[in-house]
Write a structure and sequence with these properties.
- This protein starts with a helix and ends in an 11-residue tail after the last helix.
- The radius of gyration is 11 Å and the shape is globular.
- The chain contains four helices and no strands.
- The longest helix has 13 residues.
- By secondary structure, the chain is mainly α.
- It has a single domain, classed as lambda repressor-like DNA-binding domains (434 Repressor (Amino-terminal Domain)).
Length: about 70
């Protein structure tokens, strides 16, 4: 399962992080985080992996769920 902009935003807010905080944790720019969260451009595999690792290292794991 790939992560989406809304996944990242929800996880970031769950942690109490700003976009700047996530940028620091990932070494990505705040602009890149914003573009990712707002679904404004295709995502590279590297960016997805970097964000997922930062969230997982902070205790948030995004998993596929069953739609009800």
């Amino acid at each position: 399962m790939t992560i989406t902009g809304p996944h990242v935003k929800a996880a970031r807010e769950l942690l109490g992080w700003t976009r700047g905080d996530l940028a620091i944790e990932t070494t990505l720019s705040v602009a890149t985080i914003g573009i990712f969260e707002d679904d404004k451009a295709p995502r590279s595999v590297e960016t997805i992996h970097t964000i997922r690792l930062a969230l997982q290292d902070s205790g948030v794991e995004i998993v596929a769920g069953e739609r009800v």
